[in-house]
Amino acid sequence: MDRRDAPRYSEAMKAMMIYNPVAGQRDMADELRQVIAYLEGQRWEVTLRRTLGPGDATTYAREAVVHGFDMAIAVGGDGTLGQVATGLAGSRCILGVLPVGTGNVWAHMLGLPQWSPLSPRTTLLDAARVLVEGEVHAVDLGMAGDRYFMLWAGIGFDAQVTRGVEPHREIRRSLGNLTYVIATIALSLGLRGTRVTVTIDGRSMRQRLIMAVVSNAQLYGPTVRLAPQAQIDDGELDVYLFKGDNLLDGVRHLASVLVGRHHRNPKVAIYRARHVALHAARPLPVHLDGEPIGYTPVSISVAPRALRVIVPSWASGSLFTDGGGAEEASLARRIAERLRAQRERWHEEAERLQQDWERVIGRSG
User: Fold this and answer.
1) Pair 312, 134: CB distance under 8 Å
2) What is the signed CA dihedral for 8, 14, 18, 21, rounded to 10 degrees?
3) Structure pTM?
4) What is the per-residue pLDDT across 132-150, written as a single tens digit (0 to 9) for each?
């Protein structure tokens, strides 16, 4: 299947919107109503489903496949995204994304519009336009057991942080990404490396690790580029083994990742693989896309181009194997597309203000 497999948007689309109401730091009810009205104005048929607990997003996504929906739209964070992807894997149903979570790493990587304190006027409506105007790409998924992930699997310290934060949803909703910073500092005081047997495409090695990341994505946070060479449709996963035994090693790893020098760190081993297995001397926690799933031992593999997903036309060509070498042309195209979308939003805002003004004048008359 070609990575660009655009549906005929001139025809009505049947879409299931899978909404996680506890994701993010804002109440999205009003914006969701605007999005649904916009999509219905494009002759889409939209069904809204709200998740009530763990696993609901996967269940709803599977229902979307069974009932012939053209698209399942994940409205939530990266964890919701991974759950919906699990339900859609291997099907023809397209994944759409409306990012309302705390990290929104997938959205940052693809350049999807999203709200932030620095751009408070950016709404879900901007992201909804990508659902209508974007391109369909076939992308890889990672797989651990019967669960899929879109971004990464983490084993060891980062999964320990995730497990510590997960039960405190209200605190996370209030503090956002600061919650993870606080948990990282608190848990790092007792940081110790663990003996782990790592098997990469059949070749085994034994290392003392602080953590391991098996990545399908370039980013490992909204701004941290852990795997800059990763491509989301190349049929391989990028494996990062962070070796060490104590807090000092952990601090050095964190500093090298933040400044982008971890590829030169002799205590970071980097591989590309289709299959990775980890067996630890003591059980280590594991997370997929920020959601805890259990402990080692764990076996992780790639599912090549197992998911069809909408991406904006300005997404970086470096994410795809056929992205081309014309970086400047690609950048110019992305800038032009973003400017066009911004002009359209300004035009719609001007029309709305004019209508409001005419209503005010009508009342005073």
Assistant:
1) yes
2) 100
3) 0.79
4) 999 999 999 999 988 999 9
